[in-house]
Amino acid sequence: MHNDEPRPSGELENKIGYHFKDSGILRAALTHSSYYNEMKMKAEPGLTYNERLEFLGDSVLSVVVSSYLFEEYRNKQEGDLTKIRAAVVCEKALSKFAAEIGLGDYLFLGHGEIMNGGRKRPSLTADAFEALIAAIYMDSGEVFTEVERFVMPFIKSEISTISKNGVFIDYKTMLQQLVQQAEGEILEYALVSETGPAHDRQFSVEARLNSNIIGRGNGKTKREAEQKAAREALILFGEVKEHDEKTY
Fold first, then answer.
1. Whether pLDDT at 177 is above 90
2. Strand order across the beta sheet in which 187-195 lies
3. pTM, whole model, 2 decimals?
4. Active site residues
5. Rounded-to-integer distance, Cα 144 and Cα 120, Å
6. What mean pLDDT is reported for the chain?
7. Is residue 165 a contact partner of residue 81, using CB atoms and an 8 Å limit?
């Protein structure tokens, strides 16, 4: 296989578990504008590229994720749901999903784009992932079933991953509200240690109520460590179950 040529799209179909009825729409989803611009003067009838599909895929993905969050997180307000959705459909997340299926290897790219590392460029592969979503949506009859089957494992995994950093539930606020129910209680967070090189710091924090340690937490930032200490305290008080998914 020549270095400029993508891997056979049939491999990708096997990998994602969806086989296209219209191979043309898959080809469009996998074609970058750089390839189109290089090839449009040559005889390749019907050649198009994926920017329009990317536009549609962005909206389809938003609907699928929004619907899932609306049903799954009934106790969360609109602002929280918006934050979660933004975190799991951002370029960083989408490029990670694309990398998991090796999407860059299947793209039709212009020679210059390939030489500049386009197959691994996050912005490019994230856009192609959205185009692939749109292609599945269109090919399956403009229903969400196949899109959900394809994309939700990525989304659920990403929610689980980023939830570990205390992004979605503000445990400190929850603990503060609990403590305020009794007058005269003093809640504070004490930095116990700070270790590691500047680029990889580790913070250890204790949550203290009237000088008594009620929770400990470690993290790459003081905020993360404080959130984890607050969560441990809430477990201690029976407000949070230890094995609950940390849907921050």
1. no
2. 187-195, 202-209, 212-219
3. 0.68
4. 58, 130
5. 28
6. 89
7. no
Could you report the per-residue pLDDT of 181-233, keeping only the tens digit for each? 888 899 999 999 999 888 788 999 999 999 999 999 998 888 889 989 999 99
Q: Which residue has the tokens 């799209």?
A: 9
d(CA 225, CA 193): 11
Paired tokens of 26: 């898959």
Residue 101 phi, psi (nearest 5): -105, 10
DSSP state letters, 10-74: HHHHHHHT---S-HHHHHHHTB-HHHHHHHTTSS-TT---SHHHHHHHHHHHHHHHHHHHHHH-T
In the chain the domains, ranked by start, together with CATH numbers, are: 9-163 (1.10.1520.10), 171-236 (3.30.160.20)
What residue type is 123 in one-letter code?
S
Q: Cα Rg for the chain, rounded, in angstroms?
A: 23
